[in-house]
Amino acid sequence: MATLKDILADKIAAYREEIKGILALHRDKVISEVTVAQAYGGMRGVKAQICDTSTVSPDTGLIIRGTPLLEVTDRCPEEIFWLLLTGELPDAASLKELQDDLASRAAVPKEVTDALRCLPKTTHPMAMQSIGLLALQSGSKFRKHYDEGMSKDEYWVWCLEDSLDLLAKIPTLTAAIYRIRYQDGKLIPRDSSMDWSANFAHMMGVDDPTGDLANLMRLYLNLHADHESGNVSANLCHTAGSALSDPYYAVSAGLNGLAGPLHGLANQECLKFHLEIQESFGGVPTADQLKDHAWKLLNSGRVIPGFGHAVLRCTDPRYIACSEFARKACPDHPLFKLAELMLQVIPGVLKEHGKAKNTNPNVDALSGVLMYAFGVAEPPFYTAIFGVSRAIGMCAQLVLNRGLGTPITRPKSVTTGWIKQFVGA
Ligand code: NMX
Ligand code: MLT
Predict the structure, then answer these.
(1) How far apart are CA 53 and CA 66, in angstroms?
(2) How many Cβ atoms are within 10 Å of 361's Cβ, its own excluded?
(3) What spacing in Å lies between the alpha carbon of 200 and ligand 2's midpoint?
(4) Residue 386 C-alpha to ligand 1 middle, in angstroms?
């Protein structure tokens, strides 16, 4: 049976040849132009980077290696990692080998969890997760081999090794953050009969008599793994990785971006918004009450978390997957009822407000509701769960980029003076 490394060795050699051929024939073809508005506006829509793991279509959402997300939501995150890297799903034996390999690497040194215990009690779980990865960095095999003078052809091999270590350890690390930050600080050992996702839920120590939390975790960690490479977390990771910072540094950089309220932290903000409304109205409000509440938020200059998107112009398929899960697992939960009411009311409010280009919900509008419904009652932890999942996509992208020899990222910036001169103002 070929290992992931064997398969990647063949694929990367083939990708390199393919790209060489494309560049030989089409090096100077223009694929995008940049307007002044785009340069001032977060480069929205500018095609200036390659990412083969997945793509986000404005009309249909995430497509992983040619397959729409909703066709692979029953797959576990380990399978998604394999798919992102190779373009194929693993067979049962390969999946088992990957899962066993991850299990053998999952231990986190005590010095690292001790370092987390020393942080101020108010440290946000995202800061703890990022610091935790940096504390693991001394174990980087990429860095060690770089220091010993490895050749460029070996970059991806050691990047893959670090990625496997990092992905194996990040659930252990993040569960430890949960135990230290919100529970009694006693760490729960992993259970070797469980897969990557179920183990994460198990090590957090949340009561899960029905197994629903483990199932939710599997779905959640699948849905958030990758969203092409232009999003803030993947892009930060890509940029740090392009300087040959090892995966611990690069993924930590990505997590620091994920921690922003317009990106991954929106799941925390969204659940807080739900809880605030529930408290203000003593339960699910009427549509008119919700509308007034939403307008108050907008009029105070804030955004409505969980709605809108930089690329999507449809309902996020990740939201649809969460909604299908909720309909089966917790259809009568008051927060799900409130989320359903939001779905009816908020798009209309945002349309009337007239600013957001997309008034549909994104994944963050429901992911926190589900976590809350199944016992994870600490909204600031939700983005750290997103971080465990996004590490999959960030690592897959890093490995492929080191395989393809992607150079250091360095777009050109211009000054406002240059713009004025250019437009003749
Ligand atoms: N509530 C209020 N205003 C909004 C919203 C919203 N949900 N979405 C967009 N706008 C505003 C936006 O702030 C901007 O205002 P201004 O012109 O005053 O700067 C205007 O509408 C145009 O923004 P867009 O071009 O539609 O969106 P953009 O690409 O700039 O930003 C988001 C995308 C996702 C940052 C934005 O929709 C947002 O802030 N949404 C709420 C936060 C959120 O749910 N983020 C999670 C995204 C998904 N994720 O997992 O990372
Ligand atoms: C993501 O998952 O990264 C978000 O939906 C944000 C994005 O794609 O820009």
Answers:
(1) 9
(2) 27
(3) 23
(4) 19
